[in-house]
Amino acid sequence: QMADPFLYNTGERARYGCLGHEVQIEYLKAYVCGPTFLTDKAVIVVHDVFGWRFPDIRFIVDFIARHGYIAICPDFFKGSEPWKSTDHWGDFADWMKDHDPMKVDKEADVVLKYLKEQCGAKKIGIVGFSWGGMAVHHLMLKNPQLIAGVSHYGIIRDSEERYNLLNPTFFIFGEKDHTISLDQVTLLEEKLQQYCKVQYKIKVYPGQVHGFAQLKPEDMKPDDKPYIEEARKDMIDWIKMFV
Questions:
Q1: Fewer CB within 10 Å: C terminus or N terminus of the chain?
Q2: Is 1 part of any domain?
Q3: Domain annotation covers residue 10
Q4: Cβ-proximal residues to 91 (8 Å cutoff; 6+ apart), any chain
Q5: pLDDT of residue 172
Q6: What residues are paired with 205 via a beta bridge?
Q7: Bridge partners of residue 230, in order along the sequence
């Protein structure tokens, strides 16, 4: 049986008052937050297994919006139940079969169309966390409309085609992530050096576990705080460089 990969307790969390609002885009619901001024730059945020309503991911959407982007987190689970911290880990593999992070192309297209036609976005990047990090890795191999990507602790492992990134991509990892070993990070680095024709970056944050980068400030432990803040700044810097 697989160990619980999320070392933070998702049950006992501070409440979070969101700054954005929910919208319906074709068959998808989405949470969207924009900056206080008009912009033609947008960032799609891909949630983790806890889904689009999880407070941590909404915090990230609002955080990106504060940096001057239209930020949007669609429900990539299309109305089906997200994983819950009370669910049994023995069922996780089955749950994942119905929630494949490499089957997100249609949803990405729906959201890209909405951002371009309804929000006036001309430059669009993407960031994702865990499940969403895998989705970002996949989309950066497939969708040239996404001009930059940031994948937080999520990689596609089982395909030789996974290194021909179309646009600049930044991979963020925690040193103590027991779902992604440092061997896998090293392999990714070697293969990207070999095959990747665009700019990429890989960074490992000391002492950090899976899921570290989306914690809200009031949920951070003092020792982790500098690394979480650094990862956030690095994410925004990468997006600002290209989007």
A1: N
A2: no
A3: no
A4: none
A5: 97
A6: 174
A7: none
Residue 109 predicted with pLDDT over 60: yes
Look at residue 91 and give its three-state secondary structure. helix
Burial of 56 (0-12, 13-18, 19+ CB in 10 A): buried
Distance in angstroms (rounded) separating the CA atoms of residues 73 and 82:
14
What's the per-residue H, E or C state across 151-210? EECCCCCCCHHHHCCCCCEEEEEECCCCCCCHHHHHHHHHHHHHHCCCCEEEEEECCCCC
Residue 207 Rama label (left phi>0; alpha psi -120 to 50; beta): left
Statement: residue 179 has pLDDT above 80? yes
Does residue 158 form part of some domain?
Answer: yes
Residue 13 lies in a domain: no
Domain count, the chain: 1
What length is written for the chain?
243
Indicate the residue type of 91.
D
Report the alpha-carbon distance of residue 136 to residue 145 in Å, rounded: 13
pLDDT tens for 188-222 read 999 999 999 999 999 999 999 999 998 888 888 88
Amino acid at 30: A
Residues 148 and 69: beta-carbon distance below 8 Å: no
Produce one character per residue of 61-73: b if its CB has 16 or more CB atoms within 10 Å, e if not.
Answer: bbbbbebbbbbbb
Q: 210 lies in which domain range?
A: 21-242
